[in-house]
Structure formats: C-alpha cells, structure tokens
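Inverse folding, one chain.
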C-alpha cells in the first residue's frame, strides 16, 4: 500500500515473529494479572506504577490501567512529602508525553493528563500550550489535542483573541481543519461585549463580514472539503431568540388557557415558573402539555375555573408572567375565545436580520457560489450553500429557485436524499407559515407539496383548517396536538401508517385519511381523545378490507357520528 513494496517472509521468519509475539503476550498477561492482584490486595505503591507503565507504554488505550495509576497517585499524595510528590508528578507528565507519541489520539492519555494537572496547585499552563502546539504541528486535525487545548486555555485564562490568532495560523496552513473552524465558532462570541440590543450568540457585523470573506477563500481553494462549508453554515445561522410569549389563547367553551413560548420549556418548580393573574388576582393552576407527556414543549395549557365565565362581568383579563416576560389577553362578554399574538416577520422567526452591507455581501457570495457551481456541477456543498444563501437573503423571493437546487442536490448526493427531502419540507413549511402570517388567516393549505415531515407546528396554534393531502407523510406526529383550534384536518393520499399525533384536539370535527396505509382499526385508537370528532373518512385504506373493521371502529369511537370506510 501507498507505494511500499511488500516483502515476502520465509516460513522461518514467520515462525520467529510468532514466537516473539507469544513472548510479548505472555509478559503482557503476567503484568496485567500482577496489577489486578496488587490492586485487589490494596498494595498501591510505586511498583504498580512501574507495571502499568509497561502495559500503557505498549497500549495507551487500556482504561483500567489509567484508573489504577490514578488510585496509586492519590494514595502516594498522602504518603509523600510535597517535594517527593512533585518529582513523581514530573515523571508522570513525561510518561504521558511518551504515551502520546505512541498514540497521539489516545482518549485515556489526554484524560489522565487533564486529571493530573487539575490536581496540581500551580500547573505550568504555558508548557501545556507549547505541548499542544507541538502535537498540532504534527497533525493539525487531532481533535483530542484540540479538546485538551481548549481545557488548558480556559484554565490559563488565555484571551480569546490570542487563541483566535492561533487558529488563524493553522487554518492558513491548511483550510481542511474542522476542529480549528469549530474553535473559532466558540471564540468569536467572546471577543468583545455585545451591545444591549444584540442577542447573545450573534456576531457583531464587522466580525461576521470578515469571517465570511475568510471562509469564502477557504471553500474556493478546496471546494470538496466540508469543514469550511460547515463553518459557513454556522455563520449564516441565527442566534437563539429572546425569551418571549408568542401567543396567549383563552377559550370560554373549553375553560382553558393555552400559551405558546419562543422555545421549548418545562413548567415545573425549580425549572420554569409561570404566574397567572385573572382580573389582576393570582390564580394557582396546574400546567400540562397538549400531548400529556409534560416534556419540553413550546405549548403549555391549564384549565380555568368555569365559574369565572358564569358571572355578569363584561370582561375578564388574563396576564401571564414568565420570568421578566409578560403577556396579557382580554376576553369580552359574548366572545367564545380571545387571543393575543405578536406579529412576527421572517427575520424574527426563521432567519437573521440583514443590514444593507450584510445583504450585499451575501448577494455577492451567492453569485460567486453559482459561478463555482458552474465549474463544479456535482459539488454538493456548493449546492447546499446556494440554497442556504437564498434562504438567508429572502426565502419567499427565491422559493422556486430553491426547489430547483434541491432537485440538483438530490442528484449530486443521492445517499442523503431522505435528509434533503426533510430539509426541503422544513423550508417549505417556513415559507407557508410566513405567507399565512402576512395574510393573517387561520386556514393553511399544504397539499401537493411532497412534504415528508411536519415542523414548526407551534406556529399553527390558531389554525382552524389544515390540508395535508397528497404529500409523502408516513405519520401524523405527536406535535400535532399543539393545534388547539384545529377543526378540520385533511390528510388524504399520503402513506400514513400512524395517527398517534391526533390526540387531545378539543375542536377537531372532521378528519379525512382516505388513501393511506392504515392497516388496522387499533391504529386509530388515539382519536377517542378528540371529543368533538363527528366525521371520519377512511376510504381506500388497507383496514377497509377487514370485515370486522366497521364494527370495531364504531365500538372504539362511539362519539363519531359518521365513519366512512
């Protein structure tokens, strides 16, 4: 291999090697057994260090041996004077370095070095940084050494600017260095304090523009290396949104209050606390998720006392406090429901804000990537980046072009066709949510879109009619339970085998699941939790071939007036 001539060995030479291996194996086993025996008897002395050195010098990845050494060192620390123990530690550091020369990517060796230095009163962090530089000089992509360098830099309080300069030197030498690019993503947000108006995690514009230029040079130098493309995708990402209550919905008929948050939370003492005030008086309530699982969720709801709605008061005010965030909603007499929802632009929902300068840079990058794609038509990273740049600039304006590039990307990268279908579905749903936001409607038609998954369902809290017909869906996910106002759901012509997500939908009246892959009536048992369901259409499903299916369905769903099979 690699141009080396394979030299044939004689039977005598092969036999000599076999005997040598057996002798080494015998010594290895004897040393291992001796170590375990001493450990069992509690003899934690320097002889154990010597025996483990023999084992680890040949095989640094024997984790139990490192554990033995740590036990011995902790014992000797109590037995020896500080000067004697310092000499022992210096020898241990030298031994570790020799092990790293045997295997520079040994998990156990790097971990043991972290442990050892963490116990020293005054470690020589400068020497450790030099050690990292030496090993990264030999292999700049040794992620074990990068992890250790981050540990050392943190302990030594090295300024982020100095570490960033170090990554500059290695990236300049070799753009194909994912660990170095990743380290930059950790360092850049720490470079300088952000203005109060800028969310944490988002880069100042001057730094972002500089990084975009650097990474563009990288992927034009080596278009097939994925590390720079990944870093570019991180640069295009958006920071975590500020905590916000996106929507507050009060229903008189259901005596229920529903809340949608900007991120998934768990409402529990000591984790997240919500305070509800009704007519300016605090009201203790029990919070739950729509699907009843009480796991991290965007949507939480609580029951309200029915006597609140029986009085003669002309209105009721509801105020919810979540930390420093507050939202209010008023339910007037005669109304069945009321809500308070913040209007949101696409930049607030799905992409970063663009200044004129940033938009100009991204537009230039888009044109450059298109030129590169003409030269490298099968480069999947270039195609994906074109899609992401279009999304960052304007997802609605570039919607048709984005879909065309997805088709080309699936041809260039058929191994990830399913992932790309899901990503395409995610982007399409984002676009239609934006269109619905601008039109201020509660009806959403997603039929004939070749969707393979449903996402951002927390944005559809107020939707009453949803059409998912003629897509490529295989199930209706549990997140569908967040659609608390949904009255009509159409999902004909998919490949649905499970409807576990259609659960606890208080207003669902009509459900159409024709021409799917529902095999048995038991696949529909969660529908019993939808109290107002009156029409269920199941034509052209495999379960329709079962003679007993109609009777089983009527027995399982007694509240449904019409079941069409």
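Residues assigned per position:
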């Amino acid at each position: 291999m690699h141009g080396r001539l394979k030299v044939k060995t004689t039977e005598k030479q092969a036999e000599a090697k076999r005997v040598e291996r057996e002798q080494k194996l015998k010594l290895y086993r004897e040393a291992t057994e001796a170590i375990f025996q001493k450990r069992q008897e509690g003899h934690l002395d320097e002889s154990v260090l010597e025996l483990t050195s023999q084992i680890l010098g040949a095989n640094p990845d024997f984790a139990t041996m490192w554990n033995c050494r740590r036990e011995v060192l902790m014992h000797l620390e109590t037995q020896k004077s500080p000067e004697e123990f310092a000499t022992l530690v210096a020898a241990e550091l030298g031994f570790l370095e020799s092990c790293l020369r045997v295997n520079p990517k040994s998990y156990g060796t790097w971990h043991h070095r972290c442990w050892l230095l963490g116990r020293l009163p005054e470690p020589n962090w400068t020497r450790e940084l030099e050690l990292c530089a030496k090993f990264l000089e030999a292999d700049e992509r040794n992620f074990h050494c990068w992890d250790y360098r981050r540990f050392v830099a943190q302990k030594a309080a090295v300024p982020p600017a100095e570490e960033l300069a170090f990554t500059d030197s290695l990236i300049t030498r070799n753009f194909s260095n994912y660990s170095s690019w990743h380290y930059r993503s950790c360092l850049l947000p720490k470079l300088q304090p952000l203005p109060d108006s800028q969310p944490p995690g988002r880069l100042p514009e001057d730094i972002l523009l500089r990084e975009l230029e650097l990474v563009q040079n990288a992927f034009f130098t080596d278009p097939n290396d994925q590390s720079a493309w990944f870093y570019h995708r991180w640069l295009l990402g958006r920071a975590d949104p500020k905590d916000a209550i996106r929507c507050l919905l009060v229903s008189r008929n259901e005596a229920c209050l529903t809340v949608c948050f900007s991120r998934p939370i768990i409402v529990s003492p000591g984790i997240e606390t919500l305070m509800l005030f009704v007519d300016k008086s605090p009201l203790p309530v029990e919070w739950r998720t729509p699907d009843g699982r009480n796991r991290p969720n965007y949507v939480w709801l609580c029951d309200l006392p029915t006597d609140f709605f029986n009085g003669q008061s002309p209105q009721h005010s509801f105020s919810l406090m979540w930390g420093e965030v507050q939202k209010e909603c008023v339910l007037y007499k005669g109304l069945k429901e009321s809500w308070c929802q913040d209007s949101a632009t696409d930049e607030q929902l799905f992409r970063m804000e663009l200044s004129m300068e940033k938009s100009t840079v991204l537009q230039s990058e888009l044109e450059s990537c298109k030129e590169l794609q003409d030269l490298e038509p099968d480069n999947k990273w270039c195609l994906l980046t074109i899609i992401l740049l279009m999304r960052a600039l304007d997802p609605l304006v570039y919607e048709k072009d984005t879909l065309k590039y997805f088709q080309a990307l699936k041809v260039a990268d058929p191994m990830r066709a399913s992932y790309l279908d899901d990503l395409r579905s995610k982007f399409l749903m984002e676009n239609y949510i934006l269109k619905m936001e601008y039109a201020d409607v509660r009806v959403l038609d997603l039929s004939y879109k070749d969707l393979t998954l449903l996402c951002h369902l927390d944005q559809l809290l107020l939707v009453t009619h949803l059409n998912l017909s003629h897509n490529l869906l295989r199930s209706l996910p549990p997140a569908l339970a967040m659609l608390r106002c949904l009255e009509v759901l159409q999902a004909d012509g998919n490949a649905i085998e499970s409807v576990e997500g259609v659960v606890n939908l208080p207003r669902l009246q009509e459900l159409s699941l024709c021409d799917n892959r529902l095999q048995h009536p038991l696949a529909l048992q969660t529908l019993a939790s939808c109290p107002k369901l009156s029409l269920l259409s199941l034509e052209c499903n495999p379960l329709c071939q079962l003679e007993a299916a109609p009777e089983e369905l009527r027995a399982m769903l007694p509240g449904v007036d019409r079941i069409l099979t």
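The mean pLDDT is 87. The first strand starts at residue 245 and ends at 251.
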